[in-house]
Design goal:
It is found in: Cell membrane; Membrane. By secondary structure, the chain is mainly α. Helices cover 78% and strands 0% of the residues.
Length: 254
C-alpha cells in the first residue's frame, strides 16, 4: 500500500513537470514505474506512454485557452514524429534488444536532457521571425527533428519535450510559452503512436495506468496554472539537476 501511495504522489510530480515546462514527464514516469512500482521495463515504457500521453492532452487545454498552441507548427512536426514513435516501439522487439539496453539508452538520454536543461536555464532561446524561419533552409529540420524525437519516444518512452520545445522555438519561430503548449499536443500524438507499436509486445496493467493517469492529471492542471507565475529559467535549472540525479541512478543500476 505504501508503495502505491508513493508511486501516485510521484505521478503528481510527473504531471507538474508536464504542465510547467512542457516535458520531462516520461523521464520521471519510467523510473517510477520500474524502480518504485516494480513494473518490467517494456511494460513500464508502454504504460508511461499511456500516462504521459493522456496527461499531456489534458495539460495542453489551459495553454490552448490562452492561445499558446500553434497548430500549424504542430502539423509540420507531428506526422514524422508519430512514424518515428511507432518504429521506435517496434525496434524494442528486435532480437538482442534487452531490458538493460533500453534502460541504459534511457539513462543516457536522461543524462543528455539534464545537461541541456541546465545549460539552457541560463539562456532561454528566443524565437526567430516566423517568415524568416519559413524561408530559411533549416525549416525542413522540423519534421526531421520530429522523426528523431519520435524514435526516442517509442524506444525508451521519453516524450522528448526537452528536445521538442527548443526545436519549435528556434526553427518554428514561436515564443517559448507557445512552444510548451504545442509540445504537449505533440507528445500526446507521439505517445499514441508508441503505444500502438507496443500492442502485442507486452501486457499492460491498465488499472494501474488509469490510477497513475488520474494522479498525474491533478499535477498537470496545477502545473499549467502555475506556469503563468513561475520563472521558467529557474524551474528548468532545478528540474535539470533532478533529472541528472535520475540519470545517474539508472546508469549505475545497469
Amino acid at each position: 500500500m505504501l508503495i502505491l501511495i508513493v508511486g501516485h504522489l510521484l505521478a503528481i510530480c510527473i504531471g507538474l513537470s508536464l504542465g510547467l515546462i512542457g516535458g520531462g514527464g516520461s523521464i520521471l514516469a519510467v523510473p517510477v514505474l520500474v524502480y518504485i512500482m516494480g513494473i518490467g521495463t517494456r511494460e513500464a515504457i508502454a504504460m508511461s506512454l499511456a500516462i504521459v500521453g493522456s496527461v499531456s492532452l489534458l495539460g495542453m487545454l489551459p495553454h490552448w485557452r490562452r492561445g499558446n498552441v500553434n497548430f500549424k507548427t504542430f502539423a509540420i512536426f507531428t506526422p514524422t514524429a508519430m512514424i518515428g514513435a511507432y518504429f521506435g516501439a517496434r525496434l524494442a522487439s528486435f532480437p538482442g534488444i534487452t531490458d538493460t539496453i533500453q534502460m541504459m539508452t534511457f539513462g543516457a538520454i536522461a543524462l543528455l536532457a539534464s545537461i541541456l536543461m541546465i545549460s539552457r536555464s541560463n539562456h532561454v532561446p528566443k524565437a526567430v521571425d516566423p517568415s524568416v524561419a519559413k524561408d530559411n533552409s533549416r525549416w525542413w529540420l522540423i519534421p526531421l527533428g520530429g522523426l528523431g524525437v519520435g524514435v526516442i519516444t517509442g524506444f525508451v518512452g521519453v516524450g522528448g519535450g526537452f528536445a521538442i520545445v527548443p526545436v519549435l522555438v528556434l526553427l518554428g519561430g514561436i515564443p517559448i510559452k507557445e512552444a510548451i503548449g504545442t509540445s504537449l499536443l505533440i507528445i500526446t500524438f507521439n505517445s499514441i503512436a508508441g503505444i500502438i507499436g507496443y500492442l502485442g509486445q507486452v501486457p499492460i496493467n491498465w488499472s494501474l495506468t488509469f490510477s497513475m493517469t488520474i494522479a498525474a492529471s491533478l499535477g498537470t492542471l496545477g502545473g499549467a496554472y502555475l506556469n503563468q507565475f513561475i520563472d521558467g529559467k529557474r524551474l528548468q535549472k532545478f528540474f535539470g539537476f533532478f533529472v541528472l540525479g535520475i540519470a545517474t541512478v539508472v546508469l549505475l543500476q545497469h
